Amino acid sequence: MNGIIKRVVGVVAVACCLVAAWAAREAAPPEMKFNDVKEIAPGVFFRYSSISATDMSVPFGGCNNTWVVFKEFVVVIDANFPKEAEDVIAAIRKTTDKPIRYVFDTHHHGDHAYGNTVWAKAGAKVIGHVNCSRLLEMNGPKQWAEAARDRKDIANNQLKTVDIAFDEKHVIDDGSQRIEFLYLGHAHTPGDAVAYLPKHKLLCTGDACVNGAFNFMGHSNSASWIKVLDRMKALDVAMIAPGHGKVTNKGLLDLQQRYFVDMRDAVKKGIEAKKSVEEITANIGMGWYKDWTGKDASKIPDNVAHVYKELTGKIDHTMLGRAVSPDAMGPYGAGRGVDVAGR
Ligand SMILES: [Zn+2]
């Protein structure tokens, strides 16, 4: 989720045996409250942030964070905002005193990448997909300046891009823990990548899969996103740690995928019936979506409009997939990009 954009809606330990039993049975995951930290697999900690599409009393604490304790160092999934990065570092220090060597940006959005400087000061190198790196570099300064108007922690920090950029896969493995950083395609943004922990059958998805939280689609490719979710489903996974929302089992991937499949179907039918985007939005249906997220799909017009533009050829995803100039890509920057690939 792009928490730096006002239009976006709203904007310890568990015994290992219990986790293993949960993963095996795919029963209900442990209940967690905002700021709770739990060891969801041996040496793997999850800090639950919170965002609700409907309950504004629930604080927005940036993104969820997962950290993995290796033999001699710690690897963190997502940089969060600068203020939350400090909070997460404090939480990590309650679980281990090993140095934090790497932080992984699942994508370039502020609530996942703007804490990079804080992590760098703590001694960490930033890992991310090449498109995440490009988007931070090309669009970062403008979007950072906009975000700094709303958040003091951003105003008091500096944008930092990726130190270690990868194309398809980057692996950290010391024999005790293994993380595979995988690029599975353009989903929530062109620079999405996931962190897969095969030993624990855990997948940290960033915003390429969220649980009941709002899907920001402004930088997305919904057709490709559906395929990315297929690729996630093909992995040997029992537990999903989403970018926002609670940890749960693999069934979350189906729910997330269904949102895009059903919405694309409804929009396609509406276009064929020559309905306006407003009519399509009002009649989008998808009652199951409200059961999952607490929010009616028809109350998220930006997402329907995004799919409408995609299906009427108004978005060129290849531009987003490479890099776009800072001026060409507004907050919702879908596809009006000037190609500056080759930088
Ligand atoms: Zn995001």
Can you summarize this structure?
With 343 residues, the protein is of the alpha/beta class. The protein is 35% helix and 16% strand.
Q: How would you sum up the global shape?
A: globular
> In total, how many beta strands?
13
Largest sheet data:
7 strands, mixed
Report the total helices. 12
- Find the CATH superfamily of the largest domain: Ribonuclease Z/Hydroxyacylglutathione hydrolase-like
CATH class of the largest domain: Alpha Beta
Strand order of the largest sheet: 1-2-3-4-5-6-7
Strand content: 15-25%
Unreliable stretches: 3-27, 323-343
What hetero molecules are bound to the protein chains? zinc ion
- Output the CATH topology of the largest domain: Metallo-beta-lactamase, Chain A
Secondary-structure content class: alpha/beta
CATH architecture term of the largest domain:
4-Layer Sandwich
Round the Cα radius of gyration to an integer and report it. 19 Å
Tell me what the structure shows.
The chain has 2 domains: 16-257, Ribonuclease Z/Hydroxyacylglutathione hydrolase-like (Metallo-beta-lactamase, Chain A, 4-Layer Sandwich); 262-321, no CATH class. Mean pLDDT is 85; it is low at 3-27 and 323-343. Helix 8 (251-272) crosses helix 11 (301-311). The radius of gyration is 19 Å and the shape is globular. A hairpin with a 4-residue loop joins strand 8 and strand 9 (178-182). With 343 residues, the chain is α/β, with parallel strands linked by helices. It has helices spanning 16-25, 82-93, 110-113, 116-121, 130-148, 152-155, 222-234, 251-272, 277-282, 287-293, 301-311, 317-321; strands spanning 37-41, 44-47, 65-69, 74-77, 100-104, 125-129, 164-166, 169-173, 178-182, 194-197, 202-206, 239-242, 248-249. The chain is built from 12 helices and 13 strands. It is 35% helix and 16% strand. Residues 1-2, 107, 109, 112, 188, 207, 216 line the site of zinc ion.
